[in-house]
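Wait, mind explaining this?

_____
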Amino acid sequence: MLTKQRNNGVILIIVLWFVALITIIVATLASETRLSAKIVYHNKVAVHTWNDILHALRAAEMELLINKMPDPPGEAQEIPLNERQNKNYQFDGRVLNLAYPIPETVTVRIYNHAAKINLLRLPKQRFHELLEKRIGNDFEKLEALEDAWQDWIDRDDFKHVNGAEKDYYETLSPPYEPRNARLETVEELLLIKGFAEVFKDVEMDNAFTVHGNKYQVNPNLATREALMLLPGLDEESINMILSIRREKELQSVSDLNEFMSPEQLAELGSWFNYRYITNIYTIAVQIKEDSTDTSIQDQWAYMETVHPKGNNKLPQILMVKPYGVLPDTRQTILSK
C-alpha cells in the first residue's frame, strides 16, 4: 500500500512537471508569435513609410523640372509687375503644395543652396569676418584658424606658422590626414584644427554649402542658421528679414534700412546677393507627427541634394541624408 502511494506521488510530480514544461513552451511560443507579429507590423509600416517618402521625392523632383519650364503665354501678364515674385523663392524651406499629389503622411520642403554660405567661394577677408563674429577679435586665434584652413586645402605639406599639417593630424585619435584639396562636404570643416570648437553649436549642413558659384547668400532664401553667422545681423534683424520676405521680395539694401542701423549695414557689407539663385537644391521629406511611424523626431527629415539639368530628365542626385536635420523652420509658411 505504501509502495502504491509512493508510486502515485511520483506520477503526480511527473505530471506536474510535464504540465509546467508544456506551459512554459506554450508561453514561449505565444511570446515569439506576438514578437513576430510586431516585427511584421513594423516592417509593413516601414515599407509604407519608405514608399511615401519615395513618392514625395519623385513629386518634388518633378516640381523642380516644372519650375524650369517657361510660364504659359499670357499667364505672367495677368499679375501686375510690382506684385510678381520670383518663382524660385518658394524654395526657401516652406512646406510646399506640389503640382503632383503626395501622400498625406509626409510634407515636402525644398531649399535652394543660395540660402547657405559657400565655403569654397569665400574670399580670405570674408572668411576672417565669419570667424571674427564667432570668436571675437582675437588676433592669435584668428591667425591660427586661418593658417590651419590654408594648410588643409593647399596641396603641399609645408605648415604655415600657426597651422597644422599631416604630422599634427596623425597624433589624433583616430588619426587622419588633411585633404590638401578643396572641401568635399561642409562637415569636413570640423576636422580642421580648431574649427570643431568654433562651430560646435552650428548645424553645419544648414548654414554652409559646397555648391554654387558665389559666397554670398540670397536673403529671400537664406536659412536662419546661415543668417546667424553673418556680420552685422542679430536675432532681431534676422526675424525682420524672415518676416518681411513672407510678404514681399527683398530687392536691395534699401529694404533693410528701416530696421538696421548704418553700422550694421556697413558690417554686413556685400554678404547679400539679392538676385543669386543656384541650380542646386535640397529636398527634405518629413513624416508628419500624426503618422504611424513615431520613431522619426520632429526635426528629422529624409534629405536629397539634387542638381536639375534641363526639364526633360530627372535631376542628378549629389547626396542623400536619411536622417538629415531640418533648418530652423520658424517663420516659414505654406505656399499658396
About this structure: The first strand starts at residue 106 and ends at 112.
